[in-house]
Amino acid sequence: MKVWDISQTLRPGMPLWPGEPPLAIRRLAEIGPQCPVNVGALDAPLHAGTHADAPFHYDSGGATSAECALHPYLGPCLVIDARHARGRIELQDVEWAAIAGVERVLFRTYGQFPADRWDSDFTAIAPEVIAGLRQAGVRLVGTDAPSLDPETSQTMDAHREILAGDMRILEGLVLDDVAAGRYELIALPIRILEADASPVRAILRELPR
Ligand SMILES: Nc1ccccc1C(=O)C[C@H](N)C(=O)O
Ligand SMILES: [Zn+2]
Ligand SMILES: [Zn+2]
């Protein structure tokens, strides 16, 4: 069965949201005459790389990563090619007929994902699109951009629509090698106490035919 890894590699020096402290991997023990193992520690912002926002990120009373139910992150999904969208994915950028019966939608906005630089000019998603997806029965929205809302947003309109519909979010996906269409998504958040987001290992699998 074919599997697509749609995750970024967490690594020191990787592009992060402006102002976030750098990711570090510390070596706590190293194989040598006195030590049989290598052991490391990870220090990373919770929104580094490919991650799932928890509702607590945009709602102080919302569920944390440890509390989130997993079914939104697991099951059939539709990858939508939105490379033509400019600035924001708007209602007319989406082929709504294709969404019917789909619970998970992943948007591809990049021709080539900017793995080695931070892109402040990423393509956001209009709140009207999130509302339309919710009405169509979608439970999870994913994107290859680092956020649903523009980098400078203070109102977080798309996130607010997600909250209104109790939907879930994946950000920072890498969809370079993925054709538009239907797949099985597996992208489970880690159970982290009090976390507003969690890294995920996001993969797509061929749907059984
Ligand atoms: N680290 C931040 C600091 C300040 C404001 C936003 C962020 C984010 O990470 C945004 C994010 N990835 C999001 O969930 O939309
Ligand atoms: Zn995030
Ligand atoms: Zn977000």
Automatic annotation (TrEMBL):
Gene that this polypeptide is encoded by: kynB
Pathway: Amino-acid degradation; L-tryptophan degradation via kynurenine pathway; L-kynurenine from L-tryptophan: step 2/2
Positions that bind Zn(2+) 2: 53, 159, 171
EC number: 3.5.1.9
Similarity-based family: Belongs to the Cyclase 1 superfamily. KynB family.
Purpose: Catalyzes the hydrolysis of N-formyl-L-kynurenine to L-kynurenine, the second step in the kynurenine pathway of tryptophan degradation.
Subunit structure: Homodimer.
GO molecular function per UniProt: arylformamidase activity
Binding site for substrate: 17
Catalytic residues (positions): 57 (proton donor/acceptor)
Keywords in alphabetical order: Hydrolase, Metal-binding, Tryptophan catabolism, Zinc
Domain of life, source organism: Bacteria
Cofactor note text: Binds 2 zinc ions per subunit.
Protein name: Kynurenine formamidase
Cofactor: Zn(2+)
Enzyme's top EC category: hydrolase
Pfam families listed in its UniProt record: Cyclase
Binding-site residues, Zn(2+) 1: 47, 51, 53, 171
Higher taxonomy: Bacteria, Pseudomonadati, Pseudomonadota, Alphaproteobacteria, Sphingomonadales
Catalytic activity, as annotated: N-formyl-L-kynurenine + H2O = L-kynurenine + formate + H(+)
